[in-house]
Give the backbone structure.
Amino acid sequence: MSALAAARQYLDRKARAEHPRGTFDGQRRWAPDAGERQACCRGIRPPSAAYPFSLMVHCRTKEHVAALHGLGVMQLVSALYVLTHWPTAAPAIMEAVTLAERLAGARIETSAVQRIARRIVEGGVTA
C-alpha cells in the first residue's frame, strides 16, 4: 500500500472513523488480531482490567500504522503533511516523491518532500 493510504488510515483511526482489527475477551480487554499485530506492539503493556485498551490506543499511533504499511514513521509523517496541506495534489506529489527516492536510492527527508510538493503545487507541475 502507498504512503497516502497509510496517512488516510492514520487520520481515520485518529478520528475514530476506522478501528484497528481485533477482539474483546470476556473481561472487555481488547487485543489485536494476528494481521494487526506488529513488532512495535511488543513493548506495549498487555491489556488488563485497569488498562483494557492499551493495545487499541497503540494501534492508532503513527508508529503502528507505519509498521502496518511497511513504512518508516517519517515516510508516514511526510505523507500526512502532503495530504493535509495539498489533498487534491497529494497523489501527484507522492508519485514525485517515490520517483525521487528511487533516483536517490534512499528515503528523502521531510523537508525535501515539502520542497517537491511546493514545486508541484505552485509551479503547476503534474506527475
Observations:
- The chain has a mean pLDDT of 92.
- The two ends are 19 Å apart (CA to CA).
